[in-house]
Amino acid sequence: MRIQNLLKILLFCFLLVSVVGADEEEKRVNAIALARPSVVSIRTYKKSSSEPGIGSGVIIRSNGVILTNFHVIKNADVIKVTTVDEKAFTAQILHLAPQHDLALLKVNGTGFKAARIGSSERVKLGQTAIAIGDPLGFTSSVTIGTVGGTGRTVKMKGIDYQSLIQTDAAINPGSSGGALIDLDGKVIGINTLVYTGPKNWKRAQGLGFAISIDHAMMVTKALMQRIPEKVTSTPWLGIKGTTVTRDLSESYGLGTKRGVLIRSVVPASPAEAAGLRSGDVLVRADGDLITGLPDLGEMMSARSAGDVVQFEVQRDKKTRTVEVKLDVSSR
Fold first, then answer.
1. What are the sequence ranges of the domains in the chain?
2. Labelling 140: which of 21, 81, 210, 316 has CA 20 to 30 A away?
3. pLDDT in tens, 91-121
4. pTM of the model
5. What are the DSSP E strand ranges found in 256-298?
């Protein structure tokens, strides 16, 4: 009889643990489903590098305002943002707070899924923490861990980080700027860094840290009260050019005595996407003659981002037509 009762108790405990485990798993799955649409992939491009930088960001307003780390977009010439449904945008810098390692970006559009903002003040040691981002470029990846500490301070690369949440949810290059969420799918932190200890110490297994959302939103609120860095709808081509003169034409054998000689093309720019390259000469735009940079500037001022321009291009003394879809500039 006693053995039967014991078996019943054990069976009950097993079923209880199974139900609790299943409930916990369902909470995680639901939280991730709620939060993922608000986390974006960020790729940055510099004239000095052939490889793009990788990072993440969190949509905090439905009109396309994105919160990320400053170090993710530092010195970038072009910033590209891709949403979880694979829609790509060129982001513009709205505000910068390098001393807090935070930045606000803006993409054109409406109806974006803004993140649900939690409260890091309510975060407790041992609670589940879920990191969402692009570690090593693996888009919209999810890692799960626990909160190992709150209110941490770390000094790294000249920045005194305050109010950090420590977590063992894996954070790697590319995770920066992504969301650390709780089981309600609310953002409790912005994934920021992995700390391996002071230089003179034996290298430790990295500890992951996120800027607490309370601190991040306090900085965001202050930034939004300032005049934006630069947000414009002025179209951008993405080249550096020189007005063609007779001497220049003869020196380089351009095959034309007027136009704009492309000296360089910005990576990930509309010009690069269309196939324009250094050494090309822009001769006409939508049939209108381009005699030099002033003509090109006048043509651009009459266009809008999203317009498609047909350029007549001289390349290797041959004429070809190249269609370019204009875009906004990140800077």
1. 1-231, 239-325
2. 21
3. 999 999 999 999 999 999 999 999 999 999 9
4. 0.86
5. 260-265, 281-285, 288-289
